[in-house]
Amino acid sequence: MTRVVLAPDSFKGSLDAASVAEALAAGWASVDPTAEFVHRPMADGGEGTVAAFATAIDGATAMPVTVDGPAGVPVRTRWLLLPPSPDAPGGTGVVDLASTSGIELLDDLRPLDADTTGFGQAIAAALDHGVSRLILGIGSSASTDGGTGLLRALGARFLTAEGAEAPAGARGLGLIARIDLSGLRPAPEVRVLTDVTHPLTGPRGAAAVFGPQKGLTDPEEIRRADRGLSSLASLLALEPRTAGAGAAGGAGGALLAWGGTLMPGAEEVARLVGLADAVAGADVVVTGEGSYDGQSGDGKVPSFVAALAAEAGTRALVVAGRITDDADLSPFAAAESLTGIAGSTEAALADPITHLRAAAARLASP
């Protein structure tokens, strides 16, 4: 009997990691019906972080919440309550930015006005419940607000020179003259999951590198946002060159200022869901993501899972929506792309579950 660990990331904008794992199991079982499957859907802090924990941890409870989304309209979402433990007697709250303030929630980009308020509101809901620990995934941000929205939702005030509330989003960054933290809620233990190590400001900072992905394309607007982030860092007594402070449009820096600790997302998710033990006892591990490319070796889920497999002497396989020419496939015994099976990107996106099953069947075939 073959023991197969299924540890994919989500296929961004298409399927969450748990759904990817289910499709892979169905395809593999069509060829190898006696196989035993261990589901460990993964995430690196971005889209699918809550879903990954919900699938992998017994007793996890979805907690519905409605927040102010990045489009300025309410978003019905959830945070996840993990069971109490000796070091977290009130339980652990898992909140991801992607489902509360993420770019996938926008029909049209809002580079100056989107913010992280919804993320902060979901964090506040977890605190209201009494959690002892927070695990916060901060991938897939829609904004470059320096985390001002999330800190506002937790009780901070960002004031202009005239004493008025500064506008939300990147639009207001340069107008903030004073920060009132007297009402800011105290932080419990806060683990912040990210795969980004960029500083807050400068040529590798939040505005310069990630702003264009969020619609911040005018060079002067990028410079203005960068100056605003630099000023914000000074007011928060935050070193702007700190690795990871630029994650999620500066939300990483805001969470550092609140008392959080930045951690490599894939590594921490793997630890919390017991991936290493599962891989060590398996014959094969299947991982994947929507696009496996030249950047996938830089702290992303597939490369991390492959490294665990190599340590355990377990065969590693990868399935991706697409595999680019610059992708490093050397850590894997075999690879399949949905685009290659379907014949085009459009066909792969139209029916990803069918093509995931086909990919797994190919990998399972002798």
Automatic annotation (TrEMBL):
UniProt key word Kinase: yes
Record GO terms (molecular function): kinase activity
Pfam families for this protein: Gly_kinase (PF02595)
Domain of life per record: Bacteria
UniProt keyword list: Kinase, Transferase
Family to which the UniProt record says this protein belongs: Belongs to the glycerate kinase type-1 family.
Protein's name according to its UniProt entry: Glycerate kinase
Organism, scientific name: Microbacterium resistens
